[in-house]
Amino acid sequence: VFNKQYENILTARPEPGVALVTLNRPKALNALNSALFAELNEALRLIDADKEIGAIVITGSERAFAAGADIKEMKDKSFAEVYTDQFLADWQDLTSIRKPIIAAVSGYALGGGCELALMADILLAAPSAQFGQPEVNIGTITGGGGSQRLARAVGKSRAMELTLTGRMWSAQDAVAWGMASRVVEAGDAADGVLPVVREAVALAREIAAKSQVAVQAQKEAVNVAFEQGLSEGLRTERRLFHMTFATADQKEGMAAFAEKRKPNFTNS
Ligand code: CO8
């Protein structure tokens, strides 16, 4: 996957254990079309299967994470066409990736771009990040989880206000409302890497150094909080917790603590 030439994305391994996927349609502000999503899904599938990789960063350019679904691609499609083709249904393939995904957002994250960021497990924002669900302004509505994930992330009243007006909101608002973890201040970008991307890669590296069985089970357990009720979620969490006792990494991690040494995880 790292040697492959894609047309709409770039793939790299900036640090051991970390995959960096960069959306790369600069002329269209990374507008998301079917070809881009086909490539993104393929790359993520290969990365998920790559034992050397423990966590994934998705980013865009400084100016735009992604300015939405490609309006020019979809504007003339008929209802019958989008319905029978399940247009853009494959966008949510991303949510079945086991490895943690960190979105590093700089510039515009609008429409489907905002929804893509909301599908990530962790969202870090540059001060320039501008989020928005402007679909209402072009006569349509959110289609990639905006109504559901945004409402869960920021609450009903804000989700309504934001989606009904199509207004943009800032990185600071995204953090204050609980949608993003933090704003990564613009430092010196001497090496040409955006500070928010550098920070996301460092975070991914930290996660990739843990037991991958534990990391993936932990991600699964947190995600249940967004899919099931509390009692079912707690039951799933306890099952996954118990499951870790069947792994070598749990034995190693707890033995290392008791022996006052660093654990040597084998992802088994
Ligand atoms: N689709 C296609 N092309 C785009 C898009 C887009 N979403 N956004 C920008 N572009 C293109 C522009 O057309 C322009 O191309 P060209 O140079 O050929 O004219 C180029 O990118 C640069 O854009 P601008 O000249 O407009 O740049 P500005 O700095 O003036 O403005 C904005 C930047 C404010 C971001 C502006 O481009 C804009 O408003 N873009 C559209 C934003 C939008 O409405 N997004 C929502 C789209 S709808 C959607 O995402 C539905 C998701 C459904 C998901 C379903 C999943 C299952």
UniProtKB/TrEMBL annotation:
Listed GO MF terms: enoyl-CoA hydratase activity
Single biological process term from Gene Ontology: fatty acid beta-oxidation
EC id: 4.2.1.17
Keywords, alphabetical: Fatty acid metabolism, Lipid metabolism, Lyase
CDD domains in UniProt: crotonase-like (cd06558)
Coiled coil: none
One GO location term (cellular component): mitochondrion
Pfam families reported in the protein's UniProt record: ECH_1 (PF00378)
Family: Belongs to the enoyl-CoA hydratase/isomerase family.
Name of the molecule in the record: Probable enoyl-CoA hydratase, mitochondrial
